[in-house]
Amino acid sequence: MKIFCGRSNPELAREICIYLGIELGKCIVHKFKNDNTFVRIEENVRGKDVFVIQTSAIPVNDYLMELLIMIDALKHASASRVTAVLPYYPYARSDKKDQPRISITARLVADLLETAGADRVLTMNLHSEQIQGFFRIPVDQLLASPILCDYFSKSGLENFIVVAPDAGSAKRAEKYALTLGLPMAVLDKRRDPLNDTVEIFHIIGDVKGKDAIVFDDEIATGGSMIETANALIEQGARDLHAGAAHAVLCGDAPRKLQESPYKQIVVTNSLPVEGEKKIKKIKVLSVAPLFGEAIRRIHEGKSLSELLRKHL
Amino acid sequence: MKIFCGRSNPELAREICIYLGIELGKCIVHKFKNDNTFVRIEENVRGKDVFVIQTSAIPVNDYLMELLIMIDALKHASASRVTAVLPYYPYARSDKKDQPRISITARLVADLLETAGADRVLTMNLHSEQIQGFFRIPVDQLLASPILCDYFSKSGLENFIVVAPDAGSAKRAEKYALTLGLPMAVLDKRRDPLNDTVEIFHIIGDVKGKDAIVFDDEIATGGSMIETANALIEQGARDLHAGAAHAVLCGDAPRKLQESPYKQIVVTNSLPVEGEKKIKKIKVLSVAPLFGEAIRRIHEGKSLSELLRKHL
Amino acid sequence: MKIFCGRSNPELAREICIYLGIELGKCIVHKFKNDNTFVRIEENVRGKDVFVIQTSAIPVNDYLMELLIMIDALKHASASRVTAVLPYYPYARSDKKDQPRISITARLVADLLETAGADRVLTMNLHSEQIQGFFRIPVDQLLASPILCDYFSKSGLENFIVVAPDAGSAKRAEKYALTLGLPMAVLDKRRDPLNDTVEIFHIIGDVKGKDAIVFDDEIATGGSMIETANALIEQGARDLHAGAAHAVLCGDAPRKLQESPYKQIVVTNSLPVEGEKKIKKIKVLSVAPLFGEAIRRIHEGKSLSELLRKHL
Amino acid sequence: MKIFCGRSNPELAREICIYLGIELGKCIVHKFKNDNTFVRIEENVRGKDVFVIQTSAIPVNDYLMELLIMIDALKHASASRVTAVLPYYPYARSDKKDQPRISITARLVADLLETAGADRVLTMNLHSEQIQGFFRIPVDQLLASPILCDYFSKSGLENFIVVAPDAGSAKRAEKYALTLGLPMAVLDKRRDPLNDTVEIFHIIGDVKGKDAIVFDDEIATGGSMIETANALIEQGARDLHAGAAHAVLCGDAPRKLQESPYKQIVVTNSLPVEGEKKIKKIKVLSVAPLFGEAIRRIHEGKSLSELLRKHL
Amino acid sequence: MKIFCGRSNPELAREICIYLGIELGKCIVHKFKNDNTFVRIEENVRGKDVFVIQTSAIPVNDYLMELLIMIDALKHASASRVTAVLPYYPYARSDKKDQPRISITARLVADLLETAGADRVLTMNLHSEQIQGFFRIPVDQLLASPILCDYFSKSGLENFIVVAPDAGSAKRAEKYALTLGLPMAVLDKRRDPLNDTVEIFHIIGDVKGKDAIVFDDEIATGGSMIETANALIEQGARDLHAGAAHAVLCGDAPRKLQESPYKQIVVTNSLPVEGEKKIKKIKVLSVAPLFGEAIRRIHEGKSLSELLRKHL
Amino acid sequence: MKIFCGRSNPELAREICIYLGIELGKCIVHKFKNDNTFVRIEENVRGKDVFVIQTSAIPVNDYLMELLIMIDALKHASASRVTAVLPYYPYARSDKKDQPRISITARLVADLLETAGADRVLTMNLHSEQIQGFFRIPVDQLLASPILCDYFSKSGLENFIVVAPDAGSAKRAEKYALTLGLPMAVLDKRRDPLNDTVEIFHIIGDVKGKDAIVFDDEIATGGSMIETANALIEQGARDLHAGAAHAVLCGDAPRKLQESPYKQIVVTNSLPVEGEKKIKKIKVLSVAPLFGEAIRRIHEGKSLSELLRKHL
Question: Domain limits of chain C?
């Protein structure tokens, strides 16, 4: 077994290697002056079971091409099996054709990974579960949800309610609500029929006097999270918490969240949370043991389902 | 252009041909005594643009194999393009891996259709939009929703509310609610923490004194529809209506629905509604003009997006 | 090594497992109320060498789809190799294009198996040997012929003749005749030039006063077998026996054969011979040791050719 | 439409072009001094419907590679469709795995043709009909049989019998017998049980005092034809005729056939019959009009089945 | 016919459309805040012959993913044919495995383009001609060389010599020398055997007192060009000119070239030469008419070879 | 591990087996009288790691088809991995499209090898390094260059110069020059502008009074080597030597080389040098240890790069 990583989240890769008690594989990954990505694997991988860790951080396309080139180099260097480990899957929100003449890019990415030579994929909390069907190669999806639930459970949950930030995430929120034994509410967002530019936010369900946890799969611009917070406060909710697997936090999301009504925002390190992203309100839970254990089991041919059963 | 159909819904195929003003292509489709399906296309199709209409009625596997064999026969008879027209897509609910070691059969079906030689697919109201991403060939998805909304709009909608029969269909219900300009509610279904075999149904949102339309993509056993009806009545809803694109109506669903609190159940003829399925409460809207128009546009290279813009 | 089976012939699968001294793998295979087939593998198969036993019994399409779904589930559950074990291959008679615009469905089935993820195929007595060429994956074909010959040899063969029930099976009959050291005859079947609806049956070769064994690869409706029997009796043959690898026995074949002039009909359990199929005249020979041994050798990388050399 | 040919049978290609009233496409096909085949198409073929005529004459591998290179050159020169026209299909007798660890080379050739870029295949009298199933691309098989039957019918057929030179060709012979309205017999060939090196030939069926026509799909070494002739004469047949689609005539077959008891040997020009192959007893019927008409119909998208209906 | 372009070189795309007298197709191409590229084609393309123009400018990976997503969107919007027009092919220098365990990324890019759905490729002056063999789809390679030669010829070429900046480009330089009727020289670059960090540059051939044109396929960092200039001057060459098809000009190449001994640097607009790249010494020749004419011919099925014959 | 060989260079195969200390695998390879190639593997290869040695000697197409059929037979006999060992790769010079409407046959050969079932390729001194990119399967390229350099170094190299026989091989010659620490020169070959049929040869660089070694990748007709020799002598070179990896030596090349000014011609046994090819001036160096060691390392999953580092 060999583990390599691209440049998107080397800290997570190092933590995973520590969990597994092995050294991170050596490879050179850089860009030439003409902006072409270059990869050279610095260790013999013939007949080896190789895992490449690369998450879809920003710059997204650079990290994706970096991954494809690494896989190609590993396959032509005769690795016996290459597993692409994608803690945060690229283009996961482009998973349907909800406008004419657009690309289902999450599917295109699956095809590109297969073309480059990936033999299997290990990922976490896909935006929609159907993305697993975009692959012909086996895909294992880990879940950050139990890690998030554990964290919130320990803090005590009396008089709490789970809130879905839109109708599309109602099902996901319901799972959290079931696990935590809490009631749930849903944000209903629509345009004002009298003035099309005004959006009206309405909470379906009773949140008055309750502490709320808003769960989503990822926090990107933070807009949806903050709209939900405002609507919750308007309808009399008390303390607000947010939970999400992936901390994309693009643009001025960190600042906006720090200034928002949330008391805390709980995420994982599927994406690096560093520098100005590391605001005070954010709590980062590590998924390194989860990925490390999954990699170990895949390598040894043991079942992953047990690992998932502890989860949502 | 030539249109052929299997044995799953010949009535719909005939209606589509009437819309298009052409004759249904001749072919022999039967089973030998050894239960092997046999297909012989009875017209020259060399260089023709061929559409094969087959819906996923019961018996599901027989109709699927029939379709695969027809496509194979057409391709080897040198049809220039074969479009599989699937008003109700087979195995659409098997679209994710929500248990260990199961098949994403909706994806497998996509692969089988491509293997048999289908060049494109025309379908309607997929269980999840991501299923389009299961195909490498182009897929056009039609929507029955505007036909259903039109129907309900004409009957007057004062004091109505749209209801999602579970959290997973909240997003779909939201679209109906937006189109019809109605508020919405969601059924929250969970096990009793004290007694695991008892399910508790709770409506999130306020339905008291309102007439409700419960929307789903399909009605199979009717169980989910009837649970929702009971919860709605318990919480004080008045008249109940049901709307769905696909009328699977398996087992004793027709009888149960006839005896249920619903005043009417509105569906389309994407699946044949005949014999004992044709209960009094059911209202069947035809999608033949929708499919006919889509086929005409595909054949002539015109845009389908206009056809969809009128829809949800 | 793991062995699973579909619902087409569990008895044979159990016998094979007894031969191998291992337990049949656990899996759930059933149909939902909407007639959709569902499969869940109940054991970890990561990195395992898996064999799936499914014969093409009636209902043919259901069992075929069941097999495809099982293979898909196993591959996505990371089985390292999946061998489809098909004692009676589906659609084997649809192996050529002898009419315009038909499907070579035996080839389509090969493509579907590969698409679902089968890595190799183990089958027995294909209707034509060329079907092996329909696959890109390796195919091993076992032969029931030595088992049938052994059985007849033990009963004594003095004054016997081998008869082919039509010109197309002359080559197969010749092989039996060579193995048993017997002369052969062929049934020549043609339409009366004076009256096109009347068929004339004529035996080429001398059968007078001889005991005859009519060999075919399968007995489906029994029509061909009974026509041959009548022609043999007309030309003075004495006791009649029938031998075939596959006992399809569809429709009222069992009754017709029981009432026919044959003294006995010898077949194998490549298809289940149960219930009303189990007529008195039928003798069922087990191919479980043959399949068990072949599976063992495939698993251990040993040669199968020795196993076949004992055969025709 | 453009027609090109390799170097295997330019005379047939020219005859086909005369039938179609078009000129043969210009191309350079030769071998470099290092024995590498070189092809350059000398006319623009962008968007054209191209047919490449190449039969499997000797040297077989050179002509096959020549064809593959021509197809590759045509596809990369942007021909819209390339049909490989193979009057005599290469490696047609290697169509099954009747020994361990051999290649089904007829299937491999199908794969090679598809890999090189062939979009369809037009061929004639395949050794076994199942070979059509070796292709994923459409295959049209023409039949020389009606041309042969016409020829024999014109000469008068009173007191004739059709003879199959072995059990494997009994079905083919039966078709000729049915078309010509003649009885049939089959040569039964086996080893002497007392002395394994001696072969015993026995005619099943009554040939005494009859004129016989021995039909096969091809005449290669002529050995099988001559053995049949000897057995027929031994059992009292009178005049002997031979009919076959393909005149391979390898080694000293021409001389042996000229010295054999046959009065005439009727073949087609699917393979060139020139030089020392053109013995006196041989009668060559042209298939150029048959191929020319088939090419015209394929190009114009008309049915070929009518063309075949006139045939066996 | 429709022409679309990405964001890499819209000016060239506009010039090509002017040459063709058609309007550039409308499409939206931008990045979401989460750095995901988004594409929506704003015109119906069903059954259309579509060309997408995208050159490999910096940022390379963004423009490549943009192109892949555009092709995917166009194919799923049912374009009948998509030609990727790549004036400067991405990763062209990664065309061989000259170190262990690296990727032949130019080949990977070819695979990615095919996977996304490209039906053909139109490009110019590939780094090595073998890259055409990396594709299974047809590739047309245009040549800027005659445009460069025309330009230099007009300026008068008395007492000139062509110089190859390294041994690997000797063959390319030889073609220029042949076209221009000039002698040639080659720069021999090697390490000092006494001091491994010192590179020794030596001109093979006689350049004394001559005006030199140094030809390369691209100018990236300019380093190789400037080393050649220094060696030429040292060996007594007079005026220096540089010619190259592709103006990558990365880093401080523009400044270094402006300060170099070259009198002028002649390139094409296969890559945008704008802003600080537009130094005084640079002369940009347009390839828009060349690409425009090639696109017209590809669309109309006319030969491109005539277009190339005017070239090197 | 098993090693098999075709009929192109059995002597080299035997040497390789001696190096490895294993026996050459048994197989039957011959041609039937109808010129069809037949292969039967005579040993069980189930699950084995198989290497097939076949070089592209004359007759080229026969040996290529022989190899494809062997690979197909091995894969269908369930070999776990088949490595095609091609000391001299077929059609290596057809690696680009330098004329309109020709085939890049080196790429077609790569596709044919993959289609037949090759899992990897081991070859030596490809005509251009880009050919590695024609394959999707892993390719290892060995280099004869250090073997040649070793040989020349031992003879003493004072006052020597390396010469490239044309501009296209300047890069290759440069590598030899760097390894041997020698200066280099290049033959510039062009047509006389006054008389187009006369070729003018001119050596770029100073060869006067020096001993020259002309390096090329292969010697086919010997024409290029002899032209270079003549130009060298004209410009005052002294003793001439030639070095090349592959000894194609077609036509009367042996005789011409023997009569040429070269003192010796050093090649390897990648192609058999036997019979009249074995002229006095030729020195054949064995690559058997190189291939044997590479095969051993591939089988054991060890790095090949060390093996290459000793090389150019």
Answer: 2-143+288-310, 145-285
Interface with chain A: mutation pick from B130, B169, B310, B312, highest number of A CBs within 10 Å: B130
Q: Which of residues 199-258 of F touch D (CB under 8 A)?
A: 220-221, 248, 250-251
Tokens representing B286 are 């035809």
Q: 3-state SS of chain E: helix, strand, coil percent to 5? A: 35, 25, 40
Question: Chains near F, with 3+ CB pairs < 8 A?
Answer: A, C, D, E
Residues from chain C contacting residue A301 (CB–CB below 8 Å)? 44, 46-48, 78
Q: What number of other Cβ atoms are within 10 A of residue A32's Cβ?
A: 14
The residue type at C161: I
Mean pLDDT of A230-237: 95
F261 CA: distance to closest CA in chain E (Å): 24
Residue C208 neighbours by CB distance under 10 Å? 11
CA D59/CA F36 separation, integer angstroms: 9
So what's the ipTM on this one?
0.95
- Residue D193 is predicted with a pLDDT of 63
Query: From edge to edge, which strands make up the β-sheet containing C160-164?
Result: C199-204, C184-191, C160-164, C211-219, C240-247, C264-268, C282-285
| Token output for F139 | 């390719």
Q: Of D42, D65, D102, which has the smallest distance from its Cβ to F73's Cβ?
A: D102
Q: Which residue of A has its CA nearest to E79?
A: A101
Is D271's pLDDT higher than 90? Answer: yes
Phi/psi region, residue F35 (left: phi>0; alpha: psi -120 to 50; beta: rest), is left
Instruction: Assess contact for A231 and A260: CB atoms under 8 A.
Output: no
On whether any CB of chain F is under 8 Å from the CB of E184, the answer is yes
In this structure, are residues B183 and B163 in contact, taking their beta carbons and an 8 Å threshold? no
Q: Give yes or no on whether D2-143+288-310 and D145-285 have one common fold.
A: yes
Chains that touch E (3 or more CB pairs under 8 A): A, B, D, F
Residue C167 contacts D, CB cutoff 8 Å: yes
E-chain residues within 8 Å CB-CB of A136?
A: none
Residue F93 exposed, middle or buried by CB count within 10 Å (0-12, 13-18, 19+) = middle
Test the C interface: residue of F2, F41, F44 with most C CBs within 10 Å: F44
CA atoms within 13 A on the CB side of A308: 18
Give the single-character DSSP code of D37: E
Mutate to test the interface with C, among B4, B7, B29, B35 (most CBs of C within 10 A): B35
The stretches in chain F having pLDDT less than 70 are: 192-196, 309-312
Distance to chain B for C171, nearest Cα, Å: 24
CATH of span C145-285: 3.40.50.2020
Q: In chain A, which residue's Cα lies nearest the Cα of E43?
A: A101
φ/ψ region of C160 (left if φ > 0, alpha if ψ in -120 to 50, else beta) reads beta
Categorize the per-residue pLDDT at D188 as very low, low, confident or very high, splitting at 50, 70 and 90.
Answer: confident
Residues of F taking part in catalysis: 189
Instruction: Convert the pLDDT of each residue in C262-287 to its tens digit.
Output: 999 999 999 999 999 999 999 999 99
Is residue D141 a contact partner of residue C97, using CB atoms and an 8 Å limit? yes
- Looking at residue C302, its amino acid is K
User: Domain B2-143+288-310 - what CATH class?
Assistant: alpha beta
Given a contact cutoff of 8 angstroms between Cβ atoms, the answer to whether D215 and D243 are in contact is: yes
| E102-105: Cβ within 8 A, 24+ apart | E102/A38, E102/A39, E102/A40, E102/A41, E102/A73, E103/A39, E103/A69, E103/A70, E103/A72, E103/A73, E103/A76, E104/A72, E104/A76, E104/E134, E104/F130, E104/F132, E104/F133, E105/A36, E105/A37, E105/A69, E105/A72
Catalytic residues of D: 189
| CB contact C174 to D (< 8 Å) | yes
User: For residue B7, what are its two tokens?
Assistant: 């044995």
- Per the listing, tokens 């994407």 go with B270
- Mean local confidence (pLDDT), D260-264: 96
